[in-house]
Design a protein that fits this description.
It is a single chain. By secondary structure, the protein is an alpha+beta fold. The chain has 13 helices and 14 strands. The strands form 2 sheets. Strands 7, 8, 9, 10, 11, 12, 13 and 14 form an 8-stranded mixed β-sheet that branches. A hairpin with a 5-residue loop joins strand 1 and strand 2.
Amino acid sequence: MSREIELFLEAYPSVSMIEALITDCNGVARGKLVPRAKLQSVTKNGLKLPKSALSLDIWGRDIPELAFANGDIDGYCRVVEGSLRPMRTARGLDQGQLLITMYDENHEPFMGDPRQVLASMVRRFNARGLRPCMAAELEFSLLPDPGADRPLSHALRGQASVAGNLYALEELDKHADMLEALREAFEIQGLPYEGIVKEAAPAQFEVNMAHSDDVMVLADHIIRMQRCIRVVAARFNMIASFMPKPMDEHAGNGMHVHCSMLDQQGNNVFNDGSEAGTDLLQKAIAGCLDTMADSMLIFAPSFNAYRRFQAGNHAPTVPTWGMDNRTTAVRVPAGPPQAKRLEHRVAGADANPYLALAAVLAGILHGINDELEPPSAVEGNAWEKEHDAPDLPVLMSTAIEHFEQSEFVAKYLSTEFQTLFSKTKWQELDEFQRRVTEFEVETYLRG
């Protein structure tokens, strides 16, 4: 990799610092800033970070039971080969970015690292001669920054109360300079940008990504894209928020995941020329539905995320599927047979991309391994249909219990990850449950 570093430093003489980026289980970017002169050393020897750094709660606090029981020992972070990229900041093209991934003290993949959880799932498919091909749609809210002297809730004031002007080009025109800067940032980092649209809620936008048969690179790209969106928005005094439900009466922000499956010859094994697709696609759908409740904590990792799951609010509430039906949890989009795929529509925008992709793949593999069959496809409005399947968890506490007790999670995503993630989420939930909200005060203080 030393030659790669030499070429990078020659090409970008203005780069003085490089951020070494790893995501914790919440998808928060953690890591270190490394001086230019130390880059060769880092790529050769790696970096140390406490293993507990990847299971911090959303406020960046340790989980004492996890961090201190073993003396808060280090993990060993290696550079992801080929991940070094330039990064434009408010000062110009003066920073680099590389991705790192963690191993334990025995030099085995640390399964508290979301990237390692996904890598493990990809290896299982590769062992079967299969290669997942995936894409994602990233929704976010673009809001004016109210400044440090005002609460963040002021960012939501002045947004349209009736509708979000879906697909309106004039809404893109309002942010033309920022969107051009965003396109340039994506281009600098070589990210697979396929366009942006105005979404249904006020101030809501969606970035479309090209599909990829290298799922690890795809997930890396999602992390880079989210970071780019936040950084560029801040340069224009805006907040790019991936909060799943920022506004009471409007649709929340999701991260829809598309997946087809290729064999060793590059053929899509979900395609047989028919509208319904192959038996393997049907098993994959069945597996996703069967594991959806157990995986809900991954798709909806925050307290706020559960406010998104309301009938008619563009988020599924029951594990259903349908042909080209956007009211279901799993959709088989219309299109040419060679592009036959499923679209998993449950994850919120704040889901960790590595974990969300891993959970979708784990569901697919479960369906294939156990030869499951899905229920009948739903036609029409899924929110108005009666279903045999139980509703998805709509409370964080229920989702944690499903996840913590799940044999599926332990089998496919590891018991280590299951323990770390569930304990992190219990600590977060406890904090929210102890807080008295402004709405509660307004409702009950004079009662």
